[in-house]
Amino acid sequence: MDKKETIKEYSTDSITVVWKPGVCIHAGICVKKLPKVYDPKAKPWISVQNAKTEELMDQIDACPSGALSYKLKNEIEFKNQKIIKMEEKKSAGDSPVIVSLESGKQKAWCACGHSSNQPWCDGSHKGTGITPVIFKVEEDKKAAMCMCKKTGNAPHCDGSHAK
Q1: In 10 A of CB 40, how many CB atoms?
Q2: How far apart are CA 156 and CA 83, in angstroms?
Q3: Helix (H) or strand (E) holding 100
Q4: Nearest to 149 by CA among 132, 134, 135
Q5: What is the CA 121 to chain-centroid distance, rounded?
Q6: Which residues 6+ apart lie within 8 Å of 8 measured at CB?
Q7: 63, 29 contact by CB (below 8 A)
Q8: Whole-angstrom Cα distance, residue 49 to residue 78?
């Protein structure tokens, strides 16, 4: 039996904010950047009318999980075009980075190489068609995370950088 993905949309005249709660890793960037829009205690918890379209776009572009996205209407399409041009993965390093992973946490590994928070996603992939690798840490451990973005064992290094 296929589980149906929940998708919620919140609109103004110029933008529709799309939220996929099943993808959310609760990083809290949305609430920190635009508390007047995102209020987890309110119903509905997203009030898009409380911010300008550009503010919403900038905040959503920082969502590390991709749980938040947007659809533009008419006049602001130019910014979306700029984002779409960044289509290719780029290497973020020549060797893996060793990180400590904490059991029970969800992580979003940057697959595009454009994040300024390597090896973790910062939302820089928006509009590229490249999505982060979301995974749940099963046990406390150290892990070698891929930085060249060529691994066949994402998000972990498989030595592809040496080839």
Answers
A1: 10
A2: 27
A3: strand 97-101
A4: 132
A5: 6
A6: 18, 19, 20, 21, 44, 46
A7: yes
A8: 21
C-alpha torsion angle, residues 22, 142, 159, 130 (rounded to 10): 20
Instruction: Give per-residue pLDDT as tens, 43-101.
Output: 999 999 999 988 998 898 888 888 998 887 654 333 344 333 344 688 999 999 999 99
pTM of the model: 0.53
What is the full DSSP assignment across 131-151? --EEEE--S-EEEEE-SSS--
Alpha-carbon distances of 38 from 1, 32, 70, rounded to whole Å: 33, 9, 15
Neighbours of 82 (CB within 10 A): 9
String of DSSP letters for 19-42: E-TTT-----HHHHH-TTTB-TTS
22 token code pair:
């099943």
Angle between helices 77-84 and 53-61 (to 10 degrees): 20
Nearest to 133, CA basis, from 18, 26, 23, 59:
23
**Per-residue tokens: 103:** 């059991």
Residue 54: other Cβ atoms inside 10 A: 12
Both tokens of 53, joined, read 């379209």
